[in-house]
Amino acid sequence: MASSSVALLLLTLALGSLLLVWWARRRPRGRSVCVVVLGDVGRSPRMQYHALSLARRGFDVVMLGYCGSKPHDELLSNKKIRILYLPEVKRIPVGPQICQYGIKVVIQAVHLLYVLLLKTCPVVYILLQNPPGLPSIAVCWVVCCLRRSKLVIDWHNYGYTIMGLTHGFAHPLVQLAKWYEKLCGRLSDLNLCVTNAMREDLAKNWNIRAVTVYDKPASFFTCTPLEKQHHLFMKLGHSYSPFKACTKPLDPIFERSAFTELNTRSRKVLQLDGRPALLVSSTSWTEDEDFSILLKALAKFEQWIVDGENLPSLICVITGKGPLKEHYGQIISQLCLKHIQICTPWLEAEDYPLLLGSADLGVCLHKSSSGLDLPMKVVDMFGCCLPVCALHFQCLHELVKHEENGLVFVDSEQLAAQLKMLFSEFSRPDNKLNQFRKTLKESKQLHWDESWEQNVFPLLTHT
């Protein structure tokens, strides 16, 4: 009895001490922000750009998220940005599915609350990525109430629609997530969103006023000079055979990749005559991207080459990590393609912009679970002046304008026809790809930091 009383007393003292420490640190510091990503920080480019833009304007930034992919070097080297990695909570595979999910959410909520209250100093703003918003919206709102901070939600999509792709939209979990997201989303002080279509939907169906802040490419997404292209291709050739030269140069002063050749004496780089075309697509390998569309289109393109059409061979690079990568990897390994090579690398953060700036065509298969968000990958491709073929969905026209800066398709047949049309005059300097590229170069596209200065910073200073 005595021991239990002592234990209870010690526990009370410990909790009281923690409460006093927290209360002493309760007042927000000036110009400080906590950026919360309940996901992989390295695979959250928009939130990384938010953090960098805040740091450049004198804010002290703490980023909370999962450790996985490496964030960009500029983020890691910035002295005003500190990253706190959260342990990723896995679902316990015991009991009914709804119980497994409930336990996971409770553990996430407790740990996030602990980190926000005891591992970070009080901040002026908490900037939260949604989705995932369960349980982060409620937890961040509680912390904001306790610390007199402002809650800013950046709506990238709706979490319940992503869940609906797996469970079906009538599933009780999906309906519960929708109710939670709709209720808790109204607790914020400021809302940002990625499209006008989402802004209108938030206002009409959720009674949430948001400001559209379009994704813009970071400044390092740009055309890649030929010398850097060659260096990248040689580097990738060490790990991925499609980047290696089919034949070695006869003269040892030349260094050759599948696309380029370097004269080691003059240091001059040239594109190889008859080189393959480079097609790039990036993905998180999830249910909202059906890569069978691209694979069927490539099979048809292969048949046209076999039938004697004047088309180049293709190297197709699909970058990214995700749950369905192994599934599609098995399908790709069973394809019998002689004129098309497919590889699925995971690139370093610094190499990805260089690859986009070196490619001939980008393909986007993002179909949007809600129909209200836009694919960041296309934004990055446009930053590199890379023409794009993109799968059609509801608000895609806010980014890709058919026949102006790219092409829009609805199925594999249409994509195959577009590939044939774009690559049929591949060797000609005035081909359709170069016309699109010229249009993209001439368009006055703001980079992320300029857009952030105009659209986000004024909102924060007045909230």
UniProtKB/TrEMBL annotation:
- Note the topology in the membrane: Single-pass membrane protein
Superkingdom assignment: Eukaryota
Provide one Gene Ontology cellular component.
endoplasmic reticulum
Alphabetically list the UniProt keywords: Endoplasmic reticulum, Glycosyltransferase, Membrane, Phosphoprotein, Signal, Signal-anchor, Transferase, Transmembrane, Transmembrane helix
Q: Name the pathway.
A: Protein modification; protein glycosylation
Gene3D superfamilies, per this entry? Glycogen Phosphorylase B
Q: What does this protein do?
A: Mannosyltransferase that operates in the biosynthetic pathway of dolichol-linked oligosaccharides, the glycan precursors employed in protein asparagine (N)-glycosylation. The assembly of dolichol-linked oligosaccharides begins on the cytosolic side of the endoplasmic reticulum membrane and finishes in its lumen. The sequential addition of sugars to dolichol pyrophosphate produces dolichol-linked oligosaccharides containing fourteen sugars, including two GlcNAcs, nine mannoses and three glucoses.
Family statement: Belongs to the glycosyltransferase group 1 family. Glycosyltransferase 33 subfamily.
Q: How is this protein named in the record?
A: Chitobiosyldiphosphodolichol beta-mannosyltransferase
Question: Per UniProt, what is the name of the gene that codes for the protein in this document?
Answer: ALG1
